[in-house]
Amino acid sequence: MVTYVDADAAPVKNTGQIRLYGPEAFAAMKRAGQLAAACLDGLADIVKPGVPTDEIDRYVYEFGAAHGALPATLGYRGYTKSTCTSINHVVCHGIPDDKPLKDGDIVNVDVTFILDGWYGDSSRMYLVGDVKRAAVRLVEVTYESLMRGIAAVKPGNTTGDIGYAIQSYAEAERCSVVRDFCGHGVGKVFHDTPNILHYGNPGEGVELRAGMIFTIEPMINLGRPHVKVLRDGWTAVTRDRSLTAQFEHTVGVTDTGCEIFTLSPRGYTCPPYPTGA
């Protein structure tokens, strides 16, 4: 049985209840979300052939520090980096290292900042140099999948409506939806209730109510949906080594729909992005 609770009355840990936040929390989440989005905007000038993902990681850490924020992943369950960089067939949780990006790569960069105790969580795809049309199309389908999922967010709808909007579109485009990872509640807790599946049936799942805050972050594959986690315990890859892509926004349910906290300050949506802004 799902229960909802006034966020101000709940402990700062995942209790299995769904928190309902008020206007002050929405404002704080927008500040945190906008910081993550501004960092992702800045990376449009950084992500290019020859750049090691460690340089991306360093940029994220320094950007957060300059704005009084900490990267949520640094030290989380033993993770040693400030971001995740997932390249080509890496579904999520790719670990930055000293290997340079190559011309034709696609890469997801996932940034979460803790600002004044609130978690701003977002990820975005980047095209590295001259990218093949099949990879560009996958990125476009993934972005549209995210936005269709967001369009389903309003009071009275369910998490199943979100998943159905994503799955029905992605599969119609001859792509598959990863089942092993999902979106999640977020606020003053990094990973909170409820889970947001990126597949499902209309009317099923948890009812959406005004005040809920969560991420939607579909991972879409060109091949089959199956994934495996490598020996490092973090890096998830497609089992068939097909290309994969992901976008993520953090949203809050309003009385009439939803507010996206992590929209790009520069107006960037789907790559390629302008540089030098």
Structural account:
There is one protein chain. By secondary structure, this protein is α+β, with helices and mostly antiparallel strands. The protein contains four helices and 17 strands. It has helices spanning 23-42, 53-66, 133-151, 159-172, and strands at 4-6, 18-20, 70-71, 84-87, 90-92, 106-115, 118-127, 176-177, 183-185, 192-196, 213-216, 219-221, 227-229, 236-238, 244-246, 249-253, 258-260. Strands 3, 4, 6 and 7 form a four-stranded antiparallel beta sheet that branches. A three-stranded antiparallel beta sheet has the order 5-14-13, with no helix packed on it. Strands 8-12-15 form a three-stranded antiparallel beta sheet, with helices on one face. The protein is globular. The model has no long low-confidence stretch (mean pLDDT 97).
C-alpha Rg, in Å? 17 Å
Structural class: alpha+beta
The tally of strands reads 17
Classify the beta-strand content into a percent band: 15-25%
The end-to-end distance, rounded to whole angstroms, is 49 Å
Q: Strand-and-helix sequence, N→C? A: EEHHEEEEEHHEEEEEEEEEE
How many H/I helices? 4
Mean of residue pLDDT? 97
Helicity level: 10-25%
Q: Report the principal-axis shape.
A: globular
Largest sheet: 4 strands, antiparallel
Summarize this structure as a short list of keywords or feature phrases.
277 residues; alpha+beta; 3-stranded antiparallel β-sheet; 17 strands; globular; initiator methionyl aminopeptidase activity; EC 3.4.11.18; Pept_M24A_MAP1; hydrolase; aminopeptidase
